Fold each of these.
Amino acid sequence: MPSEFELIRKYFDKPARSAVLGVGDDAALLQPAAGMELAVSTDMLIEGRHFRAGADARKLGHKSLAVNLSDMAAMGAAPRWATLALALPAADEVWLDGFARGFFALAGRFGVELVGGDTTRGPLSVCVTILGEVPEGLALYRAGALPGDDIWVSGTLGGAALGLAQPGDAAAAQRLDEPEPRVELGERLRGIASAAIDVSDGFAQDLGHILERSGVGAVVEYPRLPAFPGADARQVLSGGDDYELIFTARQARRAEIEALSRELKLALARVGSIQKAASGLQVLDAERKAMSIARGFDHFAT
Ligand code: ADP
Ligand code: MG
């Protein structure tokens, strides 16, 4: 059986191009560019909690990095470096090869370098930390939405929840297993969006985080929400794992945002508006009657 060190060297030790020092020493050395802030975020995926036992290794490699890239997108940061902490029940090289292929395929697309990590035996879990750069003062916060701002959402909602409910729906299953992080959109929203978040726990809950952090309320028109084909209202409003971006912007930015949508070939739907805090979050149906909203995903809810 290969040793821990051989496995790391074989699957995870890639030459560092933009890091001062990558895998192989006691720590990586990174040099952010002048005038940049470092954005750092960690996401953990646990077997039986975030993915089924026996989940495809390549897809897991993709998703473990994608969920972290999505956090960079939501901050308006350009992803640069990542570390990977893996607990593996066994040194299964078929699994490692698949995982590494999924991980590095996505990393390569976004110019992210794996610069370190940790490998240990244990119940299967994957923890990625990502580091990105954003020009000083230009990061997108959850706070910043003001009454009168438009609320926008990228792509479609509810596909991942549909994929979980109906694994036979191949398009929906792909949304769940291989989400596409909206990295380019996030970077282009610097200076345009007043607040942003990515949809990991469900549209209503994640918009709720913007409202809470910004001290505002919102009215959303359900018929304007970009439903994934076949997704029901609960999946659209409260399904998690879509990794789209919700953002707010002044009404004066509409034309710019519509032009950006055309340029990126990514649907951006204007779905509602920010209100004073007293309104809370209201979602209106086609008759403009308030809909009840199921809470999104909460790991500690009973
Ligand atoms: P230490 O014992 O000093 O923490 P390790 O033996 O755990 O070092 O790791 C050796 C090198 O391999 C370090 O540079 C570490 O960052 C890297 N490394 C370990 N596991 C991984 C992994 N899964 N992915 C990428 N790099 C890893
Ligand atoms: Mg170590």
Note: The pocket of adenosine-5'-diphosphate (ligand 1) is lined by residues 8, 12, 23-26, 84, 86, 114, 116-119 (CB under 6 Å).
Amino acid sequence: MRKPFVAGNWKMNTDSLTSISLARTVAEGVADIAGEKIDVALLPPFVYMCYVIGALSTSHIAVGGQDVYFEPKGAFTGEISAAMLKDAGCTYVLCGHSERRHIIKETDELINKKVSAAILGGLLPILCVGELLEERKANKTDEVIKRQIERGLAGLSEEKVLAVTIAYEPVWAIGTGLNATPAQAQEVHGMIRGLVAGLYNGGVADEMRILYGGSAKADNAASLMGQSDVDGLLVGGASLKAEEFISIIKASV
Ligand code: PEP
């Protein structure tokens, strides 16, 4: 019912040539399944976005931004609007990635404005949530995720929230080589779906895709994807290696 979705977050990596060749290799590797059996997106750095969109023009792979600003235009030096991402050819945008929450110090309120602006600008936001290791150890995972989701989705109508994908990314698993076990991921994903059902209704909860992120690799993708509430993967480091990322996508169908 929910089509699987795998997105590759390149973060602040690649250069012009490697961004083009990586995009082309991934597109060739998954040409028989992308779009039809699985949604695939690449999230390159802003400066390489147009190269990547060009390289993917004959594929069924979508492109997304790693961040967006909430204002539509104006004197916001260094920022990029939803309209600009849309105009460049983007479909998706990450909002509230843990590196932006914890390094750049983005708040739930700012992230909520970004999610709303993304939808208004015609993009599909991927709202990232996740607990720190100390929060998990203190049994605060549910409380943290609940707060991030309630605040991240605040003010969104039922119609608008259907544009949102949620990515559960435990911070302790991002870029560390430690991944949540499939059972740990399922526990939180199930809780998130229940939360969305309570905030909206069962229909919205059934439709909403919830991705897992945190050291996803070719050898753990299938077991994570085997969980009933894991609808896809948000992949960081492993999305920079074409063959590894292709294997992850194939294992997620
Ligand atoms: C991410 O950046 O969203 C991520 C999940 O990174 P990694 O796969 O490298 O842990």
Note: The radius of gyration is 17 Å.
